[in-house]
From TrEMBL:
Cofactor(s), names only, from the UniProt record: [4Fe-4S] cluster
Source species of the chain: Anaerostipes hadrus
Keyword list, A-Z: 4Fe-4S, Iron, Iron-sulfur, Metal-binding, S-adenosyl-L-methionine
This protein's name: Radical SAM protein
CDD domains according to UniProt: Radical_SAM
InterPro entries linked to this entry: Aldolase_TIM (IPR013785), GTPase_Obg (IPR040084), rSAM (IPR007197), rSAM_sf (IPR058240)
Length: 308
């Protein structure tokens, strides 16, 4: 299974469970060169959509993978670059969906959402996870360092249009970088922009893995808390430490208090309970399913819990 070219993983993800990756383009092909990118600086900088690999070749490999294993929770088109640069993204998503009942997600930096064709293609996915790291061109140039012709205003307009036309699950992500977009004024600017968008969840991230540029730093816990509270988001880092903001001692009540404010999917609940050393998280989730105060939503086989 190690010699696959397009299929990788599954990789355990705090948000998505066991995520089986599908890469539709060569490594480090991107229209951004983010200062926080874990892959280093972008060496194949382009903003031209093209068919890097044939859909049939990717699908043949996915079929091969499915013969041996179905141990994944979600299929994620992500690649080590920007997947919307693949001109066959739409047909790829449709073809993947025809072969599995699991949800198919696309993770994107959102730059090409200014293109109506890209917006149409992404509508085929069950979940889309776009990024929004900047609130104007200046900040975009500092953090994302986009391809020369990309304009922040056009990107944002595209994102806005997409969030209003898309009917699947839309999870936004903002990467907060120390000293660039994490001050109070920046957070308030993000708050204004977010009012124009329609989304199901907002995740806040900070570069915890080795970034492309050495002087990129994570934000302080205080700044992250301020952003979480002001923007109503979920901190990805706090998910891993189990902090999800509950000081309630009783584990069951702690989960209930969180899902009263933010829905959590089964992986997030499990991660949270494990971080608190709960012996049998599965048993606690069974209890949650029976709890009349909790609404359990089954979306493509992934359970989401929220308080009624
Ligand atoms: S958009 Fe993603 S792949 Fe492209 S440079 Fe940024 S982090 Fe790296």
């Amino acid at each position: 299974m190690n010699d696959f070219k397009y299929v990788f993983g599954p990789i355990p993800s705090r948000r998505l469970g066991r995520s089986l990756g599908i890469s539709p383009l060569p490594k480090k092909t991107c229209n951004y060169s983010c200062i926080y990118c874990q892959l280093g600086r972008t060496d194949k900088m382009t903003n031209k959509r093209q068919e890097f690999y044939k859909t049939e070749d990717i699908i043949a490999e996915f079929k091969q993978y499915l013969k041996d294993s179905d141990k994944f929770d979600i299929v994620t088109v992500v690649g080590e670059g920007e997947p919307t640069l693949a001109a066959n993204l739409g047909e790829l998503v449709v073809a993947l969906k025809a072969l599995t009942d699991k949800p198919v997600a696309v993770i994107t930096n959102g730059a090409l959402l200014s293109d109506p064709q890209v917006r149409e293609e992404l509508c085929h996915a069950d979940m889309v996870l776009p990024s929004l790291d900047a609130y104007n061109q200046e900040i975009s140039k500092k953090i994302d360092r986009p391809y020369g012709t990309i304009k922040f205003e056009e990107e944002f307009e595209g994102l806005k249009k997409f969030t209003h036309m898309y009917e699947g699950e839309l999870w936004l992500e903002i990467m907060l970088v120390d000293g660039i977009n994490d001050d109070e004024q920046s957070i308030l600017k993000f708050r204004e922009l977010l009012k124009e968008l329609k989304y199901d969840r907002l995740y806040l991230n900070t570069p915890v893995r080795p970034p492309a540029e050495a002087d990129v730093n994570v934000v302080s816990e205080e700044r992250m808390r301020y952003a979480v509270e002001t923007l109503g988001g979920i901190s990805i880092e706090m998910m891993s430490s189990g902090a999800f903001f509950s000081e309630i001692e009783d584990d069951y009540e702690a989960v209930k208090s969180i899902i009263g404010r933010h829905p959590m999917n089964q992986f997030e609940v499990r991660g949270f309970l494990e971080s608190r050393d709960v012996k049998d998280p599965e048993a606690m989730m069974e209890q949650m399913k029976k709890d009349e105060a909790i609404h359990v939503i089954d979306y493509k086989g992934i359970l989401t819990f929220r308080l009624k």
